[in-house]
Every structure is written in structure tokens, then in C-alpha cells.
Design brief:
Length: about 425
């Protein structure tokens, strides 16, 4: 186990270049690495919902934000909220954020970078006030590590941290409600954490957590939407029998049937642009070297930005599983574990992000997020959009997770152009949300 940033030479960490943006980018990276040291585990980063190091994390971000006049609070769901005032009173607000919790043995940037970048953008305004309040939000929980349920922080902002969720227990029998109380917060004040009708939009910077931008040699991408997701379980039924005495033509092998179908899954997904399909888990019964499998249970995960294409792919794979089993004289059972629709990002913000990316000299690439993010939850209530940063090696959820100083600099530039565009856009400042 090790902390993110271990192994980076001092010269790499301190290669501060002359321009202001690259200096700021270096500071962003330093700050992410500093927050990574606030951990529940010695020697590696793990910071789950309202664990003690989350308090240190809040205090550190408050120390960065208070000097430039931001009003800082922790809401009743444990989210960090820092509001940078507008040019005039009673202004509406733009929310910029991401999550502060991590997986076990985490990297320094997943989630955290989005919060640290938001603070850097406010610092780069150098006291200039915009027509809207800018609220930085560091969500308390996105990964779902402590309670097995993700997005607790962002659900509070859309009014969905309900009684049922408050009652969910962690492995020590502590409920979400108890955890909130133990942190010194009051669960009855959760309604006050909800976004009001004054919110103009939500922006989230996040590492891509995949290989696409690196493959295209691009720093940034505008996220057009978050893919919908189906999760199913298929059980291929065969006949368990002796592996030595049952001739090949007289057996009904559940694993062999499942294997044929797994090949079909890969083939079908490769034929449709943007479709990803994965059999991530397989379990055979009885599970012995000298016994033909009587049962093979598999999971299937299918994702696409079009719910229609995803639905058609699931139907096709299901039909092919049934046909294959019938041909082999066996049968297959299936059950749906999850069917989550795709979430589109706001088209106006998407267009503005593309303009801002172009101004930085980068190609404004548009892509779909295959993973869920807080923006997906916020989009239920406010116009939301995301900007991805290239993830070297596509590696995340690991101490080796990284970003480059150049890409962080491009993200800061993009964010500043975007704020300028939004500040001067009559269309944006007149928008209403669904609160
Ligand atoms: Zn994340």
C-alpha cells in the first residue's frame, strides 16, 4: 500500500513553470496530493462518508477559500459548501463541484480534482465578482464504499436523501443517520441542503478514468451524457455428471454453453458503436475438476448512451442465450438486477464547454461517460455538464492514478473561459431550473 504521489520525484512535483496558469496547475496537483494524505488507513488513501479524515479535508479546503471571501459551511449531509459572492446581492448561483470521498487504496484525483479545480478557478478570478454566486460543493459520498449505496451527498442536493437511505447500515451497524450525528451534524436539517430554484447550473471537472482521451492525445473532453446501464444475471442449466465416464455427445455442459454465449456478448458489443457489454463474473456448480458443470451463473453489464440501443442489445443477447441453450438441449434463466436510463448533459452548457475548450487551443472532443457521476444525480434538478481530463494510462481507483500539469492547466484555462462566457450570456443568466 502506498500514498498517491509516492515515487514522483521532487523535481517532477516542483517543476513550476513561469506562467501563471502552470503555477496554478502545479498548486492544484500539490493540493490533491495533500488531501490524499487525510486518510483512514495508514500509508494509503481511504476516505469514506464522514470518516474523521473528512473533517481535516473540509478544514483544509476552508483554509484555501476563506481568504478570498467565500462563505463556508458543511451541510447536514456532510457536503462541503463554499459560496463565492456575486457582484450584486440576491444573485442566482452556479454550482461547481465533485466528490471528496474515495475508494480504499485510492488515487489522489478521482473526485477531489474537481473540487480543487473549482477553488483554483475562484482564486484565478482575483477578487472579480460575476453576476452569479459560485458555490463550490465537495460531495460527502459518491463511491458507495461505506454503505454500499452511492451518491449520498448529491442525493441530498436534489432532495432524495430520504428516510430509507438514512436507515441504511454500514458493516459496523452504524446508519447513515447515526454517522451524520456522530460527525456533529443534524439530520433534521437535511432539507436545507437541497438546491433551491436560484441555481443556474452545475459543472463538474473529473478525470476520465478511461483510455479514450489518452488514445486521442487530447487534454479535455465535453461530456455529452452518462450512459444508461443494464445489469442482469444469466444462469445456464446443464446436467452435472462424471467428467471421465460421460462421452462428449451425451453430456449437457453448462459452462461450455455459457462460454459460447460469452463470445457472442463480445461480438455483439463490438458491432455497435459506443456499446460496451461485459460478463464480469462467472460461477459454476458444483465446481470440481472432475465434474461436468450442471449450472453456470454469469453477470452481464451493458451500457450505451441510447436507452433504445441498450435495450435492443439486452434483448438480442437474451434471445441468443435462449436459442443457444435450446440448441444444446439445456435451458437458461435470467433476471434483471438494474436498468438505469442514460442521463443527457445540458445542451447549452455542453456547447459553451466546447467553445471554452476550443479557446484553449484544444480540439473540443465530445464523449459519453460510461461511469456514473454526481452530475448524473444533479441533472435531475438543474442543468448539468461535465468536463473530463485525460487520465494517463486510463488508470483510476489506484495510487498510480495521475494527471499531467499541462492538462490541469488546460482545465483551468477552459474553466476561466467558461465562467467569462456564462457571465456575459443573457441566455444563461435568465435560465430556470426544475427545482
Ligand atoms: Zn469520481
Amino acid at each position: 500500500m502506498r500514498f498517491p504521489g509516492d515515487g514522483l520525484s521532487t523535481s517532477e512535483l516542483e517543476s513550476v513553470q513561469t506562467t501563471e496558469i502552470t503555477t496554478r496547475a502545479a498548486e492544484v496537483i500539490h493540493r490533491c496530493l495533500r488531501l490524499a494524505s487525510f486518510s483512514e488507513d495508514p500509508g494509503s488513501t481511504r476516505r469514506t462518508f464522514l470518516s474523521p479524515p473528512m473533517r481535516e479535508c473540509h478544514q483544509e479546503i476552508a483554509r484555501w477559500m476563506e481568504p478570498f471571501g467565500a462563505q463556508v459551511r458543511i451541510d447536514a449531509a456532510g457536503n462541503f459548501r463554499g459560496a463565492y459572492p456575486a457582484a450584486q446581492p440576491k444573485a442566482r448561483r452556479l454550482v461547481i463541484g465533485s466528490h471528496l470521498d474515495t475508494v480504499p487504496n485510492a488515487g489522489a484525483y478521482d473526485g477531489i480534482l474537481g473540487v480543487v479545480l473549482a477553488v483554483a478557478l475562484l482564486e484565478e478570478l482575483r477578487g472579480r465578482r460575476l453576476p452569479f454566486v459560485i458555490e463550490v460543493v465537495g460531495f460527502s459520498e459518491e463511491e458507495g464504499v461505506r454503505f454500499g449505496t452511492p451518491f449520498i451527498g448529491s442525493r441530498a442536493l436534489v432532495g432524495r436523501l430520504d428516510e430509507e437511505l438514512l436507515g441504511v447500515l454500514d458493516t459496523r451497524g452504524i446508519s447513515v443517520r447515526n454517522a451524520i450525528e456522530q460527525f456533529g451534524l443534524n439530520p433534521t436539517e437535511i432539507p436545507q441542503a437541497t438546491l433551491q430554484s436560484d441555481v443556474l447550473g452545475y459543472l463538474e471537472f473529473h478525470i476520465e478514468q478511461g483510455p479514450v482521451l489518452e488514445n486521442l492525445n487530447l487534454s479535455l473532453a465535453a461530456v455529452e451524457g452518462i450512459a444508461g446501464q443494464s445489469r442482469l444475471e444469466f444462469t445456464f442449466l446443464g446436467r452435472a455428471n462424471h467428467a471421465g465416464t460421460t462421452p462428449m455427445h451425451l453430456r449437457c455442459d453448462a459452462i461450455a454453453g455459457a462460454a459460447e454465449w460469452i463470445g457472442t456478448v463480445e461480438r455483439v458489443a463490438r458491432e455497435v458503436s459506443g456499446l460496451v457489454a461485459t460478463v464480469g463474473k462467472i460461477e459454476a456448480k458444483p465446481g470440481a475438476t472432475n465434474v461436468i458443470a450442471g449450472e453456470a451463473r454469469l453477470t452481464l453489464d451493458v451500457r450505451h448512451i441510447s436507452d433504445e440501443i441498450r435495450g435492443r442489445a439486452v434483448e438480442d443477447l437474451s434471445r441468443q442465450a435462449q436459442a443457444l441453450a435450446a440448441r444444446r438441449g439445456s435451458s437458461v434463466r435470467e433476471s434483471t438486477l438494474l436498468s438505469q436510463p442514460a442521463v443527457a448533459m445540458d445542451s447549452f452548457l455542453l456547447g459553451e464547454i466546447e467553445k471554452a475548450i476550443s479557446k484553449t487551443g484544444c480540439k473540443p472532443h465530445r464523449m459519453v461517460s460510461g461511469a456514473g457521476h454526481d452530475a448524473m444525480i444533479l441533472a435531475e434538478k438543474v442543468p448539468s455538464a461535465m468536463i473530463f481530463l485525460r487520465t494517463p494510462g486510463g488508470i483510476s481507483h489506484d495510487p498510480a492514478e495521475s494527471v499531467t500539469q499541462n492538462d490541469v492547466g488546460k482545465a483551468i484555462e477552459c474553466g476561466l473561459y467558461l465562467l467569462d462566457q456564462l457571465a456575459s450570456s443573457p441566455e444563461f443568466n435568465k435560465r430556470t431550473n426544475r427545482a
